[in-house]
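Reproducibility note. Readers wishing to regenerate the assembly model reported in the main text can use the exact inputs given here. Chain order matters: entities are listed in the order in which they were concatenated for prediction.
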Amino acid sequence: MLKDEIGKLFLKLKEKQPLVHHITNAVTINDCANVTLAIGGSPVMADSPEETAEMVAHANALVINFGTLNSSSFSAIVNAGKRANELGIPVIFDPVGVGATNYRNEKAALLLNEVQFAIIRGNHSEIASLAGITASTKGVDAGEVSESAFNTAKKAALRFNTIVVVSGETDYISDGEKTCCIANGDLLLTKITGTGCTTASLIGCFAGSGDNLFLAAVAGISTMGICGERAARRLASGEGLGTFKTRLWDEISLIDGDVWKEEVRLNE
Amino acid sequence: MLKDEIGKLFLKLKEKQPLVHHITNAVTINDCANVTLAIGGSPVMADSPEETAEMVAHANALVINFGTLNSSSFSAIVNAGKRANELGIPVIFDPVGVGATNYRNEKAALLLNEVQFAIIRGNHSEIASLAGITASTKGVDAGEVSESAFNTAKKAALRFNTIVVVSGETDYISDGEKTCCIANGDLLLTKITGTGCTTASLIGCFAGSGDNLFLAAVAGISTMGICGERAARRLASGEGLGTFKTRLWDEISLIDGDVWKEEVRLNE
Amino acid sequence: MLKDEIGKLFLKLKEKQPLVHHITNAVTINDCANVTLAIGGSPVMADSPEETAEMVAHANALVINFGTLNSSSFSAIVNAGKRANELGIPVIFDPVGVGATNYRNEKAALLLNEVQFAIIRGNHSEIASLAGITASTKGVDAGEVSESAFNTAKKAALRFNTIVVVSGETDYISDGEKTCCIANGDLLLTKITGTGCTTASLIGCFAGSGDNLFLAAVAGISTMGICGERAARRLASGEGLGTFKTRLWDEISLIDGDVWKEEVRLNE
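Running the prediction on these inputs yields the following structure tokens for the assembly.
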């Protein structure tokens, strides 16, 4: 059921070429633009507070990322997020590093008061921290949490009235009522930078292509997992993370709904 | 005629290793630096308003890009541009996303009053918007315009007393009197980010290597088209946009004047 | 002697997965994060003045890079550097482009008064300029200096009471008393951007994994040289700088202490 609809969503995306406005970090901004193009979308990365409200009006989705947050980008985010809400444009939030500093925690809390998110995507410790579930985050990557990822996804979705994606060995997608899980992925995805940020870009592309945001969340996170597996399978002896990254972008540009349906390990 | 001179310009570039100062966007800044090195130049990317006027004095060309414009980078651009004008250093302008927001339109108009450009490079809608020709820009990539690209290039060149490059399926290069077109390129060049920005880098490298700016503009835009074709021809089954990008950088580092002369489809 | 200890340091790094906080430039920030992951570390790139002092407290090393310095990043650097000093976290400084503008020279002088560095890495002209040895820097890459690189390394180490790495065809590592040199490397490493910045990342990863900072400096700079040679050896006809970069990241993700010991050309 979900599977057939997501298969069709790939076609819609290629047809619509949704414009996805990103306000993201300096580390992976190039990757986010390239992944958006690779899956069939069109990226725009304007991040000046003076223009984000105007730019987002052209977009089919807005992706917000906290990776290298500063006071300027935060203003740009708030301006764009509020305007997107007014216009009914779905907003995806990637709360990178929330839990690691008070600065990020405070800005995330402010933002959650100002902007209604369609989808929030993070690792377990980031989502737990956002939702006030006991958690400790080390830097922007690891972290330990007391709840199961399944419960964290569900609770955060209810708390913020949104769809929550918790990335990990198994990914959980919840709208507070139903919760799916995805078993695709490869450990190598954690060994290059940007696979989290670009997962949010994929989700943004799917969210900008159809009306069902839950499908978009499932499609985006699972596409990254499947493409990671496919790229890892092709690695030959003597090839490492540089080649893996190149192949991952290859796979994202080559995947279609049929490959997705064949390879996804989705538990509804 | 043009062909022989551009053939020689490749040699001059490799010999001189021109220092090309970029004030560019966060998305493709790494690509711009790598392409500058690949063609034989030397990049410097300083973008703080406090130092760009001093840094540009070392440079053989200045490349300005509006991709992720903000108030700080705009000051950096004005300071560097005015100093470059004083010193006779050619300034290349890539008006990314002009037409998409009032912010960009206003800043572009201000800049055109303050700085004399040697070469302006953009897609059709950006150049049309800059020159006040009826146009609509969607995000920073697409757009629809009423004039032919040929006429837009010519009119904008006359209006700004500069050389204008309009990138597209066919590229037009005009100084207001003569207008050339280039038929090289591949659709894949539009499917990765940064091929526009790095075309401006190539133009900057050629502009910093000789005295003829028209030749530099033709050389830069056609080099990207030719290298795109060569990279696309090498793509095997199962290879996608990640590999294409790697091969494109390969080709830019391997091309010389002889390959260029053999492969260019130039209509003088 | 040094060799055996560095062999073991590779194991420690893989085990510890040190968190390396970078405050670096926009050009190579993605490369720095990927190289940190590739060698076995964990990167965090927060660069807002409001949070760097808090973020660095989680880290095992701090890497500071002047590539695209501005007033905001300078504040972020000072805040993080002072806190790192208080906590005994080693700070690595890459004074990119020092000597090219007064702005950089002044900020570097200020920083050297405020923060005690564990290791400083730069090319000959940058280190000479920092230490007040007659030098001229062109842009951020080249430069001519009157002293031998050996002497510059030694003098700068004594002057700043630190370990100094001078990168070049031969690399010199000095603590003011003993000075080693490394003869690994390949000219291609100078033809892609970021091999200097990511060398500082490698040094940061090793510095965050053990107690001997001199070993860390030697390990970091030589690992880049060895991996550069290995990547260059694998280049086939028709492959250029794009493929070289991919292979370089491959090699950094594949190298271990045994390969290092076999390939290093170290003169103690």
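We highlight two features of this model. DSSP finds eleven helices and eleven strands in chain B. The first strand of chain B starts at residue 19 and ends at 23.
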